Amino acid sequence: MSGTATVLSNYLFPTAVSWGYPHLEVFALSDADVPYWKWKNSSSSDPWNPPGNSLESLSGQTAPFENGLAAIARGFGFVDIFCAGSDYALYHKNHSEDLQWEPSLSGWENRGGGLTSPPTVVSWAQDRLDIFVIGDGPAYSLFQQFWDGTSGWSDYSNFGGTWSTFAPTAVSWGPDRIDLFLVNSVDQSLLHKYCDGSNCDGSDGSDWSNSFESLGGYCTSRPIAVSWASGRIDIFVRGGDAGLWHLSYSDGWSSWTSISGNTSIQAEPDAVSWGPNHLDVFAWGADSSLLHKSYDGTTDSWSPKEGFEVVGQGLQGPPKAVSDGVGSVHVFCYTQYGELGHKAWNQTQGLWTPSESFDDLGAF
Predict the structure, then answer these.
(1) What is the pTM (predicted TM-score) of this model?
(2) What CA–CA distance (Å, rounded) separates 289 from 312?
(3) Which of 16, 68, 202, 262 pairs as cysteine with 144 (C-beta 3.0–4.6 A)?
(4) What domains does the chain contain, in order, with CATH numbers?
(5) Using an 8 Å Cβ cutoff, are 191 and 203 in contact?
(6) Pairing of strands 244-249, 109-112
(7) pLDDT tens-digit profile of 6-55?
(8) Bridge-based pairing state of the strands 142-148 and 157-160
(9) Bridge partners of 284?
(10) Separation of alpha carbons 239 and 224, rounded Å
(11) Element holding 128 (H helix, E strand)
């Protein structure tokens, strides 16, 4: 997996969440680093709010290194978003089923810290959030902060290390389980640490593994992790040859495998699962196309077998995807026209909508 491809700069991308069909929320950043959002609770032909090609401001300004808001639906009706602010502190707001933001539409809760990376958030229960960030220099250490419904917010825990390349990646396959991934800033290999137990606070005596294990590889993008079942993790990353590489865990780690053929990608990929044994993977092609391939775990096969299918053109950054139900995937991206673009896949119909272009959800 070694190579000569450049370790890429980060690119802006939208972020989307769903707590189930037909609910969707998408978050975007303007060129001025102001966060916006758009949402829908309806399957009607024009379900988005605000309507038309407009978005609603969430106010404030993010740090210049913020690529996209960290967002999570931690249960039906509960959405939390996080970002690094212009003062490099961690900021948070949330809403429940009524879609009323707390502390307010324009207000944010300051969670402190001095960040040099965007935050990463993971949830293994409705009343649990874990946030991981890289602190400021010269140490660039890894920090964790968590929230639970009983005790509220914790202080920051310092995991140490020097992490100056990419933001952390975290995934959970079930209650009391977190898997954390970072790219080694020296040799670009992938490193892994996990918590398996209820005490995941990062302190001495917690249930975190003692150290990071090396999973090898040569990462030229932030890794993406997804789990479609307990005990299963799939990792996707841009490799040293600028291609897409895959690593999986199921009772042990697989070998790294190239799954892009001779096709190069421009930035971090994205992956989503709408159920056991299924993955949809998306990437930003070197020709600015939207690339897609899917995985069927029952036959251990990729479609297409070699390379990707092209499902769109004119991307200005990496795509991000979310599933709102079995057989349903939504993809969001910034287009070359400065718009927030959207398209959806329906497994039953076997169709992308729109078929060739994107829905225009708004421009800044």
Answers:
(1) 0.95
(2) 6
(3) 202
(4) 15-363 (2.120.10.70)
(5) no
(6) unpaired
(7) 555 568 999 999 999 999 999 999 989 999 999 999 877 678 999 988 99
(8) antiparallel
(9) 290
(10) 12
(11) strand 128-134
